[in-house]
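User: I've been going back and forth on whether these two constructs are worth ordering. Before I decide, could you fold them both?

Assistant: Sure. I'll take them in the order you sent them. The first construct and its structure tokens:
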Amino acid sequence: MVELAPSILSADFARLGAQAQAAIAGGATVLHLDVMDGHFVPNITIGPPVVTSLRKAVNVPLDCHLMIERPDELIPAFAEAGADWISVHQEVCVHLDRTLRLIASHGCKPGVVINPATPVHFLDEVLPLVHHVLVMSVNPGFGGQTFIPSSLKKIETLSRLRESRRLDFRIEVDGGIHQDTVADVVRAGAEILVTGSAIFEHGNPRESARQLLRSALEATG
């Protein structure tokens, strides 16, 4: 099942609730929240209060992607704020197994993220623990970047690993997903498509979401 997860990073924060609802009306079934601390990535975005506000405005899973140096310290706060899924970067977690179990202990679905330079096999030991693996198809920190083509091989590798090991994690992809890349991403095995600028930067989130989701679903056929 292919799902669209609009990234609010590209939304108009003055109209965040309305824009999120418009994207959902266009077929989005998850909202992706990019949390950046200015240390792990060169940008600062949102914290738990925004999650709390969105939780009141929408009734879909909130997918919190923690691009922060010490995620263990803030996982409880994001869970309490209303996060449904929480993902952390392999590159920053010294004790990744522990961190993923911490997320689950707070009632959230744990996910693990890998940057473009991180090999898939670095996740071998934690794949049975996760709800989803998020493949970064751009270098994290800013929206509107160009898709890195080598990401397709990583998606394909994850899909094969999942089948061979009889696991059930989902494959999520974030970065550079537009009309000209979405079909290749889906055919490679991605199921959750994170995209910000393609949804929110053309003035009509509902229609943009509808068109992108239609292209994604056509690629599955």
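The second construct, handled the same way:
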Amino acid sequence: MNDSFIRLSDVVPRIYGLDFPSSVNWDIKRGEQWCVIGRNGTGKTMLADILMGRYGIKSGSIDYAFWNEECRKQTGKSYPTETIRKVGFESAYLLSDYKNMYYQQRFNALENEFTPTVETMISSLPDDQYVNELCERFRLKPLYSKHLIMLSSGELRRLLIVLALAQHPQLIIFDNPFIGLDAAMRRELDDFFVELSKIQQMIFLVPSVSEMPKVTTHVLKADSLHYEVIGTIENFRAKEWIDETFKSDEPIELPQSLFSTPHSYQYVLQMKNINISYQGITLFKNLNWEIRRGEKWALLGKNGSGKSTLLSLLVADNPRAYSLDITIFDRKRGTGESIWDIKKPIGYISSEMHLFFRENQSCLKIVSSGFFDTMGLFGRCSEEQEKMALQWMKLLGIESLKDRPYLKLSSGEQRLVLLARTMVKNPDLLILDEPLHGLDAQNKSRCRAVIEKYCEQKGKTMIYVTHRTEEIPACVTSTYELKKEA
């Protein structure tokens, strides 16, 4: 009996500008849960898109063995690729009106009222017991009244998973399934994958060993558009593999030309008795926080605890800051400063910013836009600024991407480009909100080394946000943890 589920035989994809070093041969059998592992930019997502029929093939064949007349009638679909779903970073753009939203819109009450709520999205699904169980398991019901744009990155990921599973796909592909989730939710999702594997075929795309779900039964390695079938998870574990203990032998040093001296002030931030509620939900009640010049902080908290909202008050994205007792760089908010005055000494990266960053300019232009705090480069850089942008890209190991269109990169490569953009002006205050999301072990190690070098500069201040405490740089000496209000 043929137990193949999908079989790729001598497949050579037809993708403009790309030459594949070898054809793809991959036999996925029923009941197998495959993990595709490889460094950022090695072709993991591209392989998934080939399975989903988003690219043509020059030669070879793809046999969707699960597809037959019974399956066609049961699903109501005309083609097997229509029964494959992918949940990844870009999946939010498949949601209603999401591509027409903009980042700061979530903090403007009058405008976010016009965006869909979680309940609206769920109500569009078939009203069956399975959907209800999914909403319970992924704790979506308390979020029903939340507008889509108000979801944290972790909450949004939970919604995307439910929407995909509710369609009863033949195959579901999870691209970086655990990013954006707090520790408790990662454990729950990992356990859920084990349960789901009894009825659902899955493929996971991950950049490192620590991101592999425990349900994994087979492994395929991606390496520069070459795909090697490792086989069973036991075979994989028996082979040598570069894991999270990787440390770069290449020394990281900031060139003298990149150094800058912070301005003179005593406090970077003073927040006093901050109270914020959205739609009757209290985020902050009498919140107080002070950060002195040169301090390095970790900001922690579960999904939905308000980390993004708190940072939006600091970086001038949230208009509520004007009515609150907030002082930034020794200057009280609402005393005549512009948002550009506030942003100028700040470098900021977040998952939400990454999601809304859709300018398809060259990566060098994207990095250079950090000098002007714009979502893309719309003016001219000086020769010195362009040189500095290239130096930061080299420090992060992405100088080879300088001429590549930003939107043609993998999400991990995009993350590195945005990190370079964040650091390009060597800001007085560096705010890194989950900066290592979706990065492989080597890139994580390199980025941490660059962050540590930034922090060695006298007077520089940093806020580091993460759900993974093991990733917090050694230079961090203080912690501020947000907890959900009852």
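Notes on the second construct follow. The chain has two domains: 4-238, 256-262+296-306+338-482. The chain has a mean pLDDT of 88.
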